[in-house]
Amino acid sequence: EPEVTQTPSHQVTQMGQEVILRCVPISNHLYFYWYRQILGQKVEFLVSFYNNEISEKSEIFDDQFSVERPDGSNFTLKIRSTKLEDSAMYFCASSGTLRQGAKLDNQPQHFGDGTRLSIL
Amino acid sequence: LAKTTQPISMDSYEGQEVNITCSHNNIATNDYITWYQQFPSQGPRFIIQGYKTKVTNEVASLFIPADRKSSTLSLPRVSLSDTAVYYCLLNQGGKLIFGQGTELSVKP
Hints:
Chain A is mainly β. Helices cover 0% and strands 48% of the residues of chain A.
């Protein structure tokens, strides 16, 4: 079964440094998402991306964050200047094909296993 | 705010059927009801999604009454490996809003 893959599994970075988290969504999916989960807390939505632009973003997704789909397969999340409070698990998800019967953007999101980001 | 309400925790024994009920009184016409499972240090894993009546797949069933204000996830014959957090979500396209989920503990 196709799956969302994320690299690296664990990233350790000094505060103030830039970090790029990488994701390879399921190949025929059209919608892409980033979520984060701080240890012991709920999964929180960060951003959704469709047709090469941001569809929606949360209050967490400030100017320090950016997303990009640099080629046909990767989807990246960049944090420009990391802070201690950015330490969390970051999950990428994808959804949406043209083949399934449901409305395109109601189709289930499939998540990767995350990147654990530790800011020192 | 999460749009759904579900029990914080449930206990079960191996081999039993587990039913987790979720309330979503303010469900909108376009919302689909979606359930995820999450193990520690892993991403949420899609279990099942439905709009109305009953949906069944190889791992679970989802029962949705006509008014769609609640839903019940049914896990047949659970095993120890089903110990996880289960989330009930409304999918209207775009962001998913996660609550605290139901922490299911399966005992031998």
